[in-house]
Amino acid sequence: MTQLLPRVADEPVALTEPPPPRRRRTRAEPAGGIVSSSDWRRPSVCYLLLTVHFIVLAALIVIGLGPILWLAKAAITPTQDTLRKPLALWPHGMDWANLSTAWSSMHLGHYLWNTVVIAGGSWLSQIVVATTAGYALSVLRPKYGRVLSALVLGTLLVPTVVLLVPLYLTVLNPPLLHHSLLNSFFAVWLPAGANAFNILLVKRFFDNLPREVFEAARADGAGPFRLFWSIVLPMSRPILGVVSVFAIIASWKDFLWPLLVLPDPAKQPLSVRLPTLAGSVELDTLLAALLISTLIPIALFLLVQRLFLRGTNLSGAIKG
Amino acid sequence: MLHHVGASPRRSCADAPDDTGASAQDRGSVAATSKRRPASRARRRRSPATWIRGGGLSTLVFLLPMLVVFGVFSWYPIVRAVVMSVQQTNLATAAHWVGLENFRHVLADPLLGTAVRNTLYFALLALVFGYPVPLVLAVLMSEVRRWRGLYSALAYLPVVVPPVVAVLLWKFFYDGSPTGVFNTIAGWFGLGPYPWLQNESSAMPSLVLEATWAAAGGTVIIYLAALLSVPADLYDAAAVDGASTWRKVWHVTMPQLRGVLLITLILQLIGTAQVFLEPYLFTGGGPSNSTMTVLLLIYDYAFGNSLGGDYGAATALSVMLAAVLAVLSAVYFRLTRSWSTS
What we know:
The complex is a heterodimer of chains A (320) and B (342). Chain A is mostly helical. Chain A has a domain at 110-280: MetI-like fold (Orthogonal Bundle), CATH 1.10.3720. Helix content of chain A is 71%, strand content 0%. Chain A is built from 19 helices and no strands. In chain B, helix 8 runs parallel beside helix 12 (200-228). Chain B folds into two domains: 23-54, no CATH class; 104-341, MetI-like fold (Orthogonal Bundle). By secondary structure, chain B is mainly alpha-helical. The N and C termini of chain B lie close together (10 Å). At the A-B interface, helix 2, helix 3, helix 4, helix 7 and helix 8 of A face helix 1, helix 5, helix 8, helix 9 and helix 10 of B.
């Protein structure tokens, strides 16, 4: 929750006196957990717990990491070895060429680039819509804001599935534009922006920013645009980070929508393209391709894992 | 956090269920806020000039992206879904009204019963597989004092794998031959070989197993966050009263988690009711429709080659599914609201 609260302190202060790292705080927290500290000191309890923890760790490694490690091994193993002895710990021969074959013969670079472009555009559209709407509804507060907020939040009640067909037909023939967006990245970017949850998150965050700062800026003659760009946005970096991560992950994972609106293979992201390609390439090449497409999200995850692992997923929905 | 801490402290928690904050203005508390809201003057003398000077135009400029995007890609399609469900529409001929014909057509489709049953079966299996495991795991992990980050990262790793990659990988794991990955493992214990995806009775559990693997990590993290926010003095108090570890889990931890447990339950139900990726990529609904789900049926109505282009039937079914899910969502919002204000 701490990161959802506005950080008002100036950066210089934070630089001279760095706050204690958050991780230590969470680790110190369970001092009075389910098993009390005095119990921990008893050797029998301690050994039992350590054994349980070891078993949990082993299970997590096998189940969580295992398939990915297997994929890594299989990606550099010749097809025949993988087929005959899929669980052999050490392959007979290493076939590093699989990776380069997969990259070049399946044009992974091209589809990966599509994925990146789609994710980037979806991110931009979500950020723009969420920040401007959140600002207008939370800071500027027009009279009709109440109605608009209700209309936006109401869409949270409508599951995405109900929109599948009408949204597809809207993309085929958008109102006002009258030019099909099929096979255009805008068909993915723009609907991604219509995310009420983002607006909810951002608006809640803006609601909690100190009003005095806005008053001061207004007194100094800042107009609504200046206030937005120079005051509100710089103060809202934490929430923008959360929205960005959600936006990029959702876009990276999306399958059905890009499958529908990007029928042209040259425009498809990797996730849509892989199942089609899977039927037409050798097994070892396919597994190499799967490994390549997994490595990037995993690398990103390891970079920003703190954001994932602090339960922001739901704390935003529940408490935010 | 649902009420506005800094923004408008005048509002009580029992206020109307919206979040605009403009309400403070309308409740006769104008005096306190009118200084920064010259727009309130415009209410008395409505002329475009004062409206613009009061910032009405720039507000509208800020709202424009949302209005356009939501108008075209959210509100309009929602209305259109309702309209289309009572129309006969394919792109070739003009749409005409058919009343409830689409609903009748869908309800008469023998596949609908199969799809609903399969979806419920998927949801049930997902609950059996996927509901207790993350909870137990999170409770055990909450007691880990060193390297908990490592545990969380390992548990979350499958969630990071792109869903399509996970399905394609597991499709290979599920290879029905004796040298398939899972069959090799089963062979170590003298079991199998199993047909996994090729068999009507084992196809659905196989899908759910993969779906659980792919999603459980997220739930673990949610539970873990909730567990770590249980106040330590509750445990201390229980310890003083001589409660055993098991009793502490049952009488302290679980009641504290009740809200989160209910919420993840509803979220999981909403998610499983819309399952598409697994049946589409693993089995395509087969063998003999044993993994045909509701969303797959909607997809088939609208975009499938066999039936193709029956948008009316697809939206009629979507609307029916949405009605069911809306009830669940409403319960969800109710819960999150009461839970966070209490």
